[in-house]
Each structure stands twice: as structure tokens, then as C-alpha cells.
Predict the structure.
Amino acid sequence: MNVKVEIELCVSAKQKDKKKMYDAAEFLTNDTDSIYIYQPKGKSHNLVAEFTINKARQIDVVDRIGKEFSYNMENYSQSTISFPDKPTKKKIKKIRCKYTPKQGQYLSFIYYFTKLNGIPPAEADMQRYFKTSPPTVHNMILKLEGKGFIKRKPKTPRSIKLLLPRSELPDLE
């Protein structure tokens, strides 16, 4: 099902606003390749996110979409959500940076911990496994999030979501 969310900001849209739109859409879709973020011509205060979601009753997903976008966006005055038959533009794939060997180990740990336990790890779980301090683990999480390898909701425990497929992860040592 195609989804189109248009948000009108109180100020002109900036690159960080596009990143926040992408993050909100990324959290809602199973196909990150379907995400397309753009600014409509002649509307410097507007941003549009188009993406696909699994088939569901529209009424069931509108609240979830609205909450996710309002959670991520700042300074917006209004928004609209629609379900067009076809997406406006072709799919655009997000390009990720390469991770360091240590970052790869953290990513693999997140993958395997989630797979084995059914929930993402807490920072304390990573601290115990890697035998390191809480600030070290927290800084690594911030770096991984900044590079687009994971997504999390601040102040929400165990909310880490791995954004890389298993095939792109190293073996856990």
C-alpha cells in the first residue's frame, strides 16, 4: 500500500528536516528502498514522504503514521496523509557509509541478541558483553544511529532497530 505524508513546516525546510522525515518513514515501512522524500515545487515550507507499507485497513494505520511523523518532526503546523494508487517518483535507495570493525561487532551483537531474545538489547547488555563502560556503549549507539545503521527512540528502553540486513553484517567474535 502506498502512503504519502505531506507536512507543512513553520519555517523553510532544511536538510535535517528531510532526514527526520526519512527516519519517520523508515520506522513505518518494511521496504526502505521505497522511501522518497522531496520538497514540492514552490512550497519551501513543505516536505513530502512517500513509502510503502504492508496492506492494512487505512483507518488502522493513520494514527500510527501521524504519531510517528509528529514525534520526529519539529516546527510543523499541519500535515496530510493519503494513500495514492501509485507512488509519485521512482524508488530511491539510501546510501550508507561503511562501518568500522568494532561498529560491526556491535551491529552483529544487536542482530543476534534480538534474534535470540525476541527483543533488542539494552545498553547494559552491550556493556556486559563488550566489558566496557556505559559512556562507551552509549557513544557507540549514537555513532551507529548517526551513520544510519540503527534507529532508536530516545528515552524508550530496548527500542534499537537494526537497519542493515544480516548479509551486510560480520560474524560476531
